[in-house]
Amino acid sequence: MRVSELQRMIAEIYLHRDAERGSEPTLLWLVEEVGELVRAHRRGSRDEIEEEVADVLAWLASYANLMHIDLERAFSKKYPGRCSYCSSTPCRCGK
Ligand SMILES: [Mg+2]
Ligand SMILES: [Zn+2]
Questions:
Q1: Most C-beta atoms within 10 A of its C-beta, which of 33, 42, 44, 75?
Q2: Which residue range forms the structural domain that includes residue 28?
Q3: pLDDT value at residue 27
């Protein structure tokens, strides 16, 4: 699945609810999910870590939907297949 497909799928399922909640509360939910990932990383099973990684990505997609940000475009712009600071792959600058 491409990032754009993932983002569209999350919009189809959740955009109506995300829109009711609003962008900042959705961003806070994303932070909550990152907290759950930290807990799973420290004390959880591999399955729990996988589940929380998926939650983080889903909530990031929800937030991007509300902000009208195309995740795939934003990601490719910042990470164009090489380090955006030193233009090397792998990165040689350590930034
Ligand atoms: Mg979770
Ligand atoms: Zn670099």
A1: 33
A2: 3-78
A3: 98
